[in-house]
Amino acid sequence: MPKRKLTSLPQALAEHFSLPEDVVSGAILVTMVGNCGLRIENHRGIMQFTDCCLLLKGKHKNLRITGKRLIIRQFTAEILEISGMIESVSFEMGGRK
Amino acid sequence: MKKLYRFLTGYVEIVISGIGPERFLNLCQHHGLELWALQARDDGYHICISLENFKKLKGLVRKSRVRLRICRRTGLPFWLYRNRRRKLMMAGTGCFFLLLYALSLFIWDIEFQGNLHYTDVQLRKFLRQNGYDCGMLVSDAGCEQLEKLIRNAYNDVTWVSAQIDGTRLVVHIKENDGYLKLSAGQAEEEEKSPSDLVADVSGTVQSIVTRSGTPKVSAGQEVKAGDVLISGLLEYTNDSQEIFSQKSVAADGDVLIETISEYQDTFSMTVLEQKPVAGKTGYFFRVFDRQFSLFSPGTPGDQEEQLVQEHQMKLFEHFYLPLYWGTIENTAYALEQHRYTEEEARAEGEKRLAQYLENLAKKTVQISSKNVIVQIIGDNCTVSAEVHAVYQAAERRPIPQENLLPKENQTEQNEHD
Fold first, then answer.
1. A66, A75, A76, A85: which to substitute to probe chain B, counting the most B Cβ within 10 Å?
2. CB distance from A70 to chain B under 8 Å?
3. Under a CB-based contact definition with an 8 Å cutoff, are residues A63 and A55 in contact?
4. Which ipTM was obtained for this model?
5. Where are the domains positioned within chain A?
6. What are the residues facing A79 on neighbouring strands?
7. Which fold has domain A28-93?
8. Where are the bilayer-spanning segments (chain B) (predicted)?
9. Model confidence over B32-88: pLDDT tens digits?
10. What phi, psi does B266 have (nearest 5°)?
11. Going by C-beta distance under 8 Å and a sequence separation of 6 or more, which residues neighbour residue B35?
12. What are the pLDDT digits (tens) for B318-356?
C-alpha cells in the first residue's frame, strides 16, 4: 500500500491554490544574507536572547540562532533583523498553534 | 534617512535588567513600539528607543517587573535643551539661515551660452544698460522681456532663451548663420547668370574640365590674371564658318592653374625677449563691491604684468553668492637681448615660412615649397623659397557687350540646369 504524504490542510490548500505558504500557515519566514545578516518575519516573540544565542517562538516550531556578537538591529511587531556572526539557524519542537 | 529622522526626533539608549527582560521586549513588540540596536551585555539589555515611544514604557516596565535606566540621550531635542542658554548662538544660527534665504532672492551670476560673435562683456554691458545686473531681485528679472530686448537689439540673433536657475540668470543665444547662407545663395545666383570664368592668378593651366561654356585655354598653356579660361558664349557657325547665332550661359568647369612664386623674408638675428624676473602674489576677498586684500602687490608698473584670478562662491550648482575670492599676481619682466644661434635662426625662418604657407593654403588646392635657403648675413637672416601653388579658378566676369551679336541672333539661357 503506498504511503500517504503527511501534509496539513493549510499546506494542502496553499499548494493547491498556489498561495504563499507563510501567509496561509503562519510559518516563520527567514531571509538570510550570507552569515552576517538575518531577517525574520512571522515570529511570536523572543524567548531567550544573549550575546551568542537567540531563541524565537514560532507558530509551530521555535527558531534558534546561534553565533557571536549578535545584535538585534530592528525589532518591530512584524520584522526582526539580526546582525553578527551567525553560525547556525535551527528549528526546534515547540511553538503554539 | 532613517538615521536623520531619528536624530531630529531624538532617541534614548536604555538598559533593561531584571527577571524577565524578554517579556518586556515581547510587550514592546505587542504594543507596536519600535526598538533597535538591541544588545545583550553584562549589565542587561541595551536598547535604543525613540523619545516618543519611551514615554509609553511606564506601564510595560511595571508589568514586566524590569529595571530601566537611561544611559544615553541623543538627538536634536536634547541638543536644544542642553544649549537653551546659548541665546546668541541660536540667534546667529537663525540669522545665518535668514541671510541665506535673503541672498537666494537675488541674482548673483549671469551666464551666456551659445554666443560666438558677441562677447560676454558686450552682452553683460547691454543687460546692465537695460536694468539687468547682478544684485537685482529674482522677481524683477523678467525673462520674457529680456528675450524680447535681446532679439530687438541684435538683428542676427535668431533665438534667445532666458531662465533663472537658483541665483543664476542663464541666457541661451543662437546667432544667425544665415548670412553665410545668404551669401552662398547670392553666389549661386551669380553662378547662374551668363558669365565667363576668368583666371585670378597668372600661371600655367594644369588641367581644364569644362562643364558648360566654351574653353579658351588648354592644359600647359600660360595664362595671365584676367584671361578668359572658359567663355560663357556658345557660338553656332554655319557651313561657311560664320557665326549666325549665340547662346549665353554661365561658364562652369574646373580649371587648375599652377603658379610658382618667390618667397623671401628677412628678420634680425637679435631679438628682445621678455624674461620673468620676480613675482608678487596677493590675495583678495570681495563681498558685493567691497574688496579686502591681503599682501596686495599694487598697480603693475611698465615692465610688469598683472594676472587676476577670481572665483565666485557657490553653495550648490546654481546657488551663487555675492562672495568672491582670488589671487592677484604681478610678474616683473626684464628685456634681454638674445641673439639667435644658427639652429634657432633656421627654425625661426622655417616657422615663418610654414605660417605663410598655412595662410596661403586656405585659398589653394595644393601648395608646396622647394629650394628653401636660409642665409645669415651679419645681423640679418634671410629665408627664401620657391612656392609652388595650384589654384582653382573661381572668378567670374559678365560677358563683355562687344562680344555679343545683335539681340535677334541671341538665345538667352532661360532655364537653369
1. A75
2. yes
3. yes
4. 0.78
5. 28-93
6. A41
7. Immunoglobulin-like (2.60.40)
8. 88-108
9. 999 999 999 888 999 999 999 999 999 999 999 999 999 999 999 999 899 889 989
10. -125, 135
11. A72, A74, A75, A76, B25, B28, B47, B48, B49
12. 788 888 999 999 888 888 888 888 888 889 888 998 888
